[in-house]
């Protein structure tokens, strides 16, 4: 599934720093800008950051699909702009069962961001990689107290599980777009030990509609953001 729009909240004090990080340092197209928000274009997805209430410091995990034949180049490109997160001395990971390579880093708001090259997707390119070659937001972390009831709600709304459901971690969707439903306080992978906590998220899935996670264990559906 394709995420057409994704919206997160970040600390208002980090809004402009985060905008500069993505638009200036990484070179993503700045699609929209307002007093309390900005939007970048990440391939097929418009990614919006909105200022959170005073004192709130939301933290999210999301991943971006990159061309499957450009992982080494993407890693070098990313490392020239930001420090990559390491775990046990490694700054990259290969997921055997997913047939995918990933690297991770933090943005100024503290979000755990992942570039993932999924080798099952026919996505190779034959030119030097730039931010315009990012394909889409491919993963959005969704935090729940009880994952399985929320997963069943997503299934009922027309989204299928991509892997077997579990109480800890269930990916819903497909390799082009996944909602990663995880248990509250589960440690995010390659995150410097950060625990998953619920914060509001909105996603719009092409051909399906809007999913608004406004409170833990609750999803609202609609036709637009």
TrEMBL record:
<feature type="domain" description="VOC">
    <location>
        <begin position="2"/>
        <end position="118"/>
    </location>
</feature>
<protein>
    <submittedName>
        <fullName>Ring-cleaving dioxygenase</fullName>
    </submittedName>
</protein>
<keyword id="KW-0223">Dioxygenase</keyword>
<dbReference type="InterPro" id="IPR037523">
    <property type="entry name" value="VOC_core"/>
</dbReference>
<dbReference type="GO" id="GO:0051213">
    <property type="term" value="F:dioxygenase activity"/>
</dbReference>
<dbReference type="InterPro" id="IPR029068">
    <property type="entry name" value="Glyas_Bleomycin-R_OHBP_Dase"/>
</dbReference>
<keyword id="KW-0560">Oxidoreductase</keyword>
